[in-house]
Amino acid sequence: MNIRIALVAFALLLTGCAHRTTSTQLTPKAYGAEIKEVSGGKQAAQVGSALPQPVIVQVNGADGNGLAGALVRFKGEGVNFDPAEALTDSSGQVTTTVQVGFAAGDYQVIAETPKQDGGMITIAPALREIALGYESTLGKAVNDTYCIRCHDNESTPERVSNFDNLSPAPHQFAEGATYNTFKDSDLINITSHGGLAVGKSPQMPAFGGTLKPAEIKAVVAYIRAISDPPYPTPGVKYGK
Length: 240
Known about the structure:
- Helix 2 crosses helix 5 (213-226) and helix 4 (184-193) packs across helix 5 (213-226).
- The longest helix has 20 residues, at 2-21.
- Helix content is 28%, strand content 22%.
- The chain starts with a helix and ends in a 14-residue tail after the last helix.
- The chain is built from five helices and ten strands.
- The chain has helices spanning 2-21, 134-151, 176-179, 184-193, 213-226, and strands at residues 34-39, 44-46, 55-60, 71-75, 80-82, 85-87, 93-99, 105-114, 120-122, 127-132.
- Strand 8 and strand 9 (120-122) form a beta hairpin.
- Strands 2, 4, 6, 8, 9 and 10 form a six-stranded mixed β-sheet that branches. A four-stranded antiparallel β-sheet has the order 1-3-7-5, with no helix packed on it.
- It has 240 residues and is α+β, with helices and mostly antiparallel strands.
């Protein structure tokens, strides 16, 4: 009797696994002329975690308006999506939750929709998402506690931005055009000793007495991770 129960349970388990891994092919009800990002690009999350906000894309018809019933598929090496494919809603949009991979660095999210005469229309450029390693995750936590109020121009229900009250305005940490020109040692000195000590804005306070050296280095790692354009790692050759 116990053997029979075990066999039945094993069979049910296999059936459940097969059901979970089976991909349902959706049939498009309409075909669009373009696919565009609505929101969700250039986000950062700890390795292996879901991005804080969903990715939303929109399929437009030939008239430039959102098209309902178009099929959208999401792809990305090392990235998981929920859902990985869906039909657009009445506004022509599809929303998906994105989980970045388990290696720190940049990931590309590709969204595509089929053409009526064959082939695919692909979103361009691909969406860049960022997986933060241990050090840059620590840097984000430090940023969220000490830096973000001045270096982020958006206010939230939990935090009122001080960005617009400062002159000159602080640089947002993702501004690669600015931060990529600094060495790591420069950023560490500015954070440790304040702006005035290194010939920068006196409104930048010194955090050397507040943060540990490892925390200051972690903030620099976070700035490097989210840099837009991406920070060119010294010693690495990049193809043109």
